[in-house]
Amino acid sequence: MSYARQMIDSYPHQSEIDAGVLAAAIDALSDCIQACTTDLDADLSESNLADMVKCIRLCMHCSDVCEATLGLLSRPAEHDNRVITPLLEACIAICKSCGDECERHAHMHAHCRVCEEACRRCEQACRELQVAMS
Amino acid sequence: MSYARQMIDSYPHQSEIDAGVLAAAIDALSDCIQACTTDLDADLSESNLADMVKCIRLCMHCSDVCEATLGLLSRPAEHDNRVITPLLEACIAICKSCGDECERHAHMHAHCRVCEEACRRCEQACRELQVAMS
Amino acid sequence: MSYARQMIDSYPHQSEIDAGVLAAAIDALSDCIQACTTDLDADLSESNLADMVKCIRLCMHCSDVCEATLGLLSRPAEHDNRVITPLLEACIAICKSCGDECERHAHMHAHCRVCEEACRRCEQACRELQVAMS
Amino acid sequence: MSYARQMIDSYPHQSEIDAGVLAAAIDALSDCIQACTTDLDADLSESNLADMVKCIRLCMHCSDVCEATLGLLSRPAEHDNRVITPLLEACIAICKSCGDECERHAHMHAHCRVCEEACRRCEQACRELQVAMS
After folding, report:
1. Cross-chain residue pair A49–D44, CB shorter than 8 Å
2. Which residue of A126, B105, C64, D88 is 20 to 30 Å from A25, comparing CA positions?
3. d(CA D76, CA B38)
4. Cross-chain Cβ contact B82/A67 below 8 Å
5. Predicted ipTM?
6. For C27-80, what is each residue's pLDDT tens digit?
7. Chain D: touching chains (3 or more CB pairs < 8 Å)
8. Domains defined along chain D, listed by start
9. Cβ neighbours of A86 (radius 10 Å)
10. Phi-psi category of A99—alpha, beta or left, where left has phi over 0 and alpha has psi -120 to 50?
């Protein structure tokens, strides 16, 4: 069981959000941050560097937005839809863009293929959380 | 002149956003993160600790969302309204909530008064950026 | 296989550090950040709040230092022992302190027990990385 | 007066560290993060991109370590020399490396000149804090 799920299950405050959906989003966000952080460093080592600039930038943006989303979801007590709803929307948008850009390089660079997968899973997990919250 | 403004003025890529409005938002976000980070630690030292819990939590949320917004605005080359627009919305919402909560404690705790001011200025600077981007 | 390990295995730049030890440290750091972030929010919901203040503060410190360590280890191309060696030392020290403090509350709060475990594992993984790097 | 100084002056907990030296370090860290974040995005827009890779990577490392140092210094209540001393050492080392690398590009790129200055000031402010703490 992931630490996210263990922590949620031992949490004193009862969340309105389904624990499984929330833990899945937290794990997917954490994986996506990890994949984006390493992918952009790998991109910087590639010989077709000029082609990788957009990917590097989107990985940084994606990691920043996922980081904020992860922070807020990991501290669920002070939950506010006026903040979480647009934040999830921003997160889904950047995971989509970053996943699309990684896909363009996936046939050449295995690290982009892995990062694409992490972005797609994160986008999907955030969409499922949107549904669970509505 | 702030570092944000100096960096923007020496930036090779021409931004569509007015440099003054962008630099003001970056500076206000940076100040707000600083104020929230210190305010929550100060809150934890207060004798009316149970009353400060909401303030502590909102300061953490505010700092996280401002951090992501600051990151994306500070790397303006790969600007995407589908990401920035909801992110700014989330940022304005949490700055408003956190400012309101700090205001409740401002008469008792000077650190909450200072933090309220930083949140209000950040909210305002993000609203002006919204206008400049639309 | 974790994303950290997948990313390292697909990385174009050959690291001097053993891939298994590095991936284990990255995963343990990521888990520790997650556990600390949620633990401090859970602490804020406990009735013995005044007793939890030190734990809350150490969780924030631990999460910050782990975050920096994770960032640098996840981008291994520009590795510099003058930076990584003291950073790992700081990380081990705060994981130790935070784990010790969580242990004090582990019999009362399951979330502190889970967080203690994550801190201990992270401390251990960072020590193994120290050995692998020396 | 900077927000850092205002917050420290309104802080309930008396720090052992001189308020002026602490506030100067906090402001310099915050400026350095800002400069590094923008500098690396500017680097990615330069035509001599392959020459900028080391600078990009050091800016990311520098920003991460400064972020952790800033976090711990901004929450001074739970101060522990076993953590802060090596963290400051790591911070000084990366500010030095990043400043040196930015200096190499300063004659070509104004953004690297600005970033060099921010790194040098941050290194200096951290050294002064080391002295104040010893």
Report:
1. no
2. C64
3. 8
4. no
5. 0.95
6. 999 999 999 999 999 999 999 999 999 999 999 999 999 999 999 999 988 989
7. A, B, C
8. 3-10+17-133 (1.20.1270.360)
9. 21
10. alpha
